[in-house]
Structures are given as structure tokens and as C-alpha cells.
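Below is how a single chain appears once it has passed through the pipeline. First comes the sequence as given, then the structure the pipeline wrote out for it. We keep one example in the README because the format questions we get most often are answered faster by looking than by reading.
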Amino acid sequence: MTNSIADMKQTDLFFMIGSNPDTSHPTIGLRVHQAVDRGAKLVVVDPRRTRLAERADLWIRIKPGTDVAFMNGMMSVILAEDLWDKKFVEERTEDFDYLKSVVEKYSPDIVEEITGISEEQLRQAARMYAAEGRHAIYHGMGITHYVTGTDRVKSIANLAMLCGKVGQAGGGCNPLRGQNNVQGACDMGALFNTLPGYGSFDNNELFKTFEKAWKVKLPRRPGKPATEVWDNVLKKDIRGLYVFGEDPVVADANISHVRQALEEVDFLVVQDIFLTDTAQMADVVLPAACYAEKEGTFTCTERRVQRVRKAVEPPGEARADWRIFCELSKKMGYEMDYASAEDIFEEIRTLLPQYKGITYKRLDKVGLQWPVPSEDHPGTEVLHTESFTRGRGLFIPEEYIPPVELPDDEYPMSFTTGRDLSRYNFSSMTGKTPEIDEISPECFAEITPVDAERLGIEDKSRVRLVSRRGSVEMRAKITDRTQEGTVFATYNHLETLVNLLTLDALDRLSRTPEYKLCAIRVEAVPEN
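Resulting structure:
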């Protein structure tokens, strides 16, 4: 996030696209509701009628997968009506003419044909966002989980810069991270194409810094994206896997493909707090400690680094992840000697400029938002207040590319997924709590009354959803919350693995799969 959760109190307008924070990020969702209560404006772009959509000043029911065309259309209107922030664009950005040449092609009539959004709604959205005030864009995995996910993120940045909504409290571009320490994991280099701290593989001096600290020679090549591991296993380019903190057997797209790879890999190690479906396929399982059984830090969605303190001892032979890694490293011939989690953090802050001024002593009092360049720096609540990391912000417009798998005669409906508020991810933890089973006992396929009548499906009857990759059964929920021609289901129930259906086509840059949209057919299942 470019901004802080706290400064949502200063936001005049929330532009929510590709996210339903009531179920995916409820603490954020609560703050949006509170802001609306005090009079903030709300624009929601979502194919489903969510609680926030019902409260919105403007709800735009977009066709799934057409966000780039929609945002290009907004920018086309903003330019045509002379609503853009000329001072910001002139002083702080570059390649404006290129942006203009691309988005001007997305006239309201063309956008309506692609997205299903009326010209009137498109113009209203453009005018509301471009108006004076502190306006913030919030987005989630409904933006990124497409093969054009990076195109969507670029379009959000283009829109924010065009209107000068970046670098101010209450504004900015705010991606909502999917889990509690995704931001921290990325900061530490858990990406296939960056060094810790987002260093480039072209930066030879940075490599030398890490090599000096770790006393090793590092390879100068990127790793494999996690989503490409399975193909590489099947091609025998990868012979062994070490999985920790993940359950790809239920979580990855096209899980039949994942299972095939895990059955064929030569050696599989899984490090986890439970015997997950993936762990059950492992040659070796290493029992790890959970968050309450270890010391360390998390870095949350707003870049805030916070202390994690051990409340209880880990059970049995379970150990903190870092202890397992250190002991395994020693057995493999590399002496990785750390005395504590704080010892590791001290190394982090000496190597990562963003963390330089953060110490455990400071974190004992309050979490700090990076970058924190020195120990007397208070942290950075708002990014890009005076300049961007690269200096001027670069407009990178993208043409609209249709979703990979559109409905056809054999698979005539679209399928999309989201989160269940009561469950966390794939229920590996929450699924062990009986009370949650009472609150959310099963997954439903949301189908519109029009589609249900056409298909001969009744409310609560069993249906089978079939894609080119697999099938799954569940009960139907007849509702107008979803869009005609589209079926929605949550992905959190282990008994209903909807990722048997989802598509594993990948974004060309981030290599994220197109979780959010695929083509299916719906079949009524006779009751036993």
C-alpha cells in the first residue's frame, strides 16, 4: 500500500475494484463502512452485489476480466473532459503522450461493448474519481489473479497519476495483500526475480554485498516462479521440492496438474504446523511452530513491521522455521549461525535500506512502516509524496486483452471465486474449529434465478460444475448477487475443491495464474 490504514479516516472517496474486503480483509472493510457512515463517497466495481456494492454511491457491475478496458475508458473520459491534473502530470510523470495515444481509443461506446458498463456510468465514475479531494484506490486479487493482472495494476497506477491522487494522505494505490505476511515475505526476497529488498539481478554491487555478508558465491540467474514448478517437475528439470507454509495440493490453480507433479517428484519435504494434504504426499515432514509459538516479525499490507512474541512453547518436536533452516543448513555443509530471531533481524536491517532504522527496541513500542532510513526516523506513512522511486512516475498503458477462457457451446458459463468470511484460505487451520463448521458448513454455487430456471436447478439442489480440467459438486444457492451467465463460489472448503476447475494460465510478468475466471458448464445432480 502506498498509504496507511489509519489515514482512511481522511479519504473523501474510496474506489474499490477487484476486492470484497468484507470477506477478504474485514478490518479494512470495517474502516470503509465507518468512512461511508461519516460521509465518504464510495465507488464499487464488482460483478457481484456485495454489501459494499449495496452501500456504494456508484456500483458498477462489470463483466469479469474487462478491468483494463474499463480503466482505459475512464482515462479517455478524463482526458476528453479535461479533468486530469495537469500540474502533477507535468512535474512528476513521463510518457503522458503515450498514455494518451492508447486510452483515447477506448471511447465510452467501445467500453460499453466490452465491459457491459453503460456510457453514463463510465462517465460518472471518471468524474467522481477525477474530482477534487483525497481519493484512494483499493484493489485485491480480483485484479491480480488474471493473466493480465500486471496490466490491471499498471492501469490503476496510470489512473491515479493522471488525476494526481498519489503522494497524499487518504489517497494512493492500495493493494490488499492476501495473507498476514505476504508483504514481509516479498521484502525478504521470496520472489523468483528479485533479491531481498527488491534488488535487481542486474545490480552486481548488490550481489557482492550479499556475498560478503553470507560468505558464499550467489548464482546470477532468477529462480523459478512457484506457478511454473509443476511443469518443471514433470519435465524432470526439478527433482526435489521443499514446501513450507503452503498447501498447493488444494490451493494452486488446476490442482489435478499439481497432484500429478507431486506424485512424480523424486523427493518432497514439507514443513508445516499440520499434516496438510500436501504434507501427506511428502517423503519427509518437518513439524514447524505456529505464530504463537515463536519470536519474529510480520510486515503487513501497509508495510508496517510488527513484533511477533512467543506466547507458548511449540508442542513435541515442532520448532521455529528459522531453527529448522539453520540446522538443516549445517547438515548440508553451510554454517548458518544465528542466536535468535532478533539476531536475524539485525542482519536484515543491515542489508535492506528500507529496514535500516528499525530495531526490536523500537518495535516493542509500535510497529513502523518502511522505509525507515535511520533510527530516529518515524517511518513512512505515505509513499511518493515528493517523487517516485525511479524519479518521475512512468505511464505504462496497456491494451485490453480478453480473458483466456471465454464461454462457448460446451462450457457456456463463467466461473469466478472469492473468500468466505468465516474461513481463512483453505481451512487447514480454521477447518479444525468445530464452531466455524457450524457458521460455514459448506460451499455453495451462486446462480442467478434466470440461469437456474434455464438449467432446471432449484435452490439448495446439488449441482456439478465442470471445466476443461475437472469437476466438483456442491449445492446451489439461487441469488441475484451474482451476474447472469456467471457462477460464483468460495474456495475455502476442503470438501469442495473448486481449484479442480480453475485455470493455470499465467501472467507474462508476475506468473500469477488466472484463478478468477474460467469457462464451465453446470449440471443438475439427481438427489440420492
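The two ends are 50 Å apart (CA to CA).

See the next section for the split statistics.
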